[in-house]
Amino acid sequence: MLKLRLALVTCALGGALLSTAPAEAARCGGDFNSFIASFSADAAQAGISQGVISQALGGVTEDPGVLAFDRRQRGTFNKSFEQYVSTRVGAGRIKAGRAMLMRHASLLSRIERQFGVPPQIVVAIWGLETDYGKGDMGKLPVFRVLATLAHDCRRTELFQGELLAALQILQRGDLTLRDMVGAYAGEIGQTQFLPSSYIKYGVDYDGNGHVDLRHSVPDVLASTANLLKSAGWKAGGSYEEGSANFEAMREWNRALVYRKTIAYFADKLIEQ
């Protein structure tokens, strides 16, 4: 799933992320350290403390592996639905998902009442992204990844916005620097939020004062539902292909095959 999210990040989120970027974007390309110095000045003007900037960006280096991966992943997702779903929705994942529906039934019911998104959709996304938080959430330092992609001139405004949002997560105390690890486009947590989405849609659902999308199941599930509600999800509506709710899932992932997989998986979770 991480590869697919990176391939689609530009078309899916580009417009939304520009508002997160510093008003005066640092100049991309050229010397990496000079770029970081310029971006750091912009971040300070945007309200990020010098302590947080130094903690996150002090000594940060460019990662050629991230750029290589990015170049390999650009393009159209070309698997058929049948090919993709056969690798993503198996008996074991369905069984585990049904167990999660039972284990978190009260929480998921409360989330549905508040956000209008049914439990099976939230759990399907959770399962597909990281096997309910037990799978791969990514192991790359988020600030190294985002600084690398921001320095690259192809999508510098997009990723400068993400880098600033990542600094905001750290400054708010939602995650520690040690927990700021993720995937190849800087996705974080159990349902793989980009930092800008973390800031925009993250919900402190366990009431501890922080949005923790790595460790807090209530925060993870409520934030996922909040993203869909904000994208236009209608409570009680169908989510089959062609419906308004299926369209709302474009904010999660614009790939038709992936949205069909979410819907298919959700139906399997509640199948009698």
UniProtKB/TrEMBL annotation:
Source organism, top-level taxon: Bacteria
Gene3D superfamilies membership: Bacterial muramidase (1.10.8.350)
UniProt cross-references to InterPro entries, sorted A to Z: Lysozyme-like_dom_sf, MltB-like, MltB_2, SLT_2
Domain Transglycosylase SLT, first and last residues per copy: 32-239
Keyword set, alphabetical order: Signal
Any Pfam family: SLT_2
Biological process (GO), any one: peptidoglycan catabolic process
GO MF annotation: an example: peptidoglycan lytic transglycosylase activity
Annotated signal sequence range: 1-25
Keyword Signal included in the entry's annotation: yes
Designated name of the protein: Lytic murein transglycosylase
Taxonomic source organism: Rhodopseudomonas palustris (strain ATCC BAA-98 / CGA009)
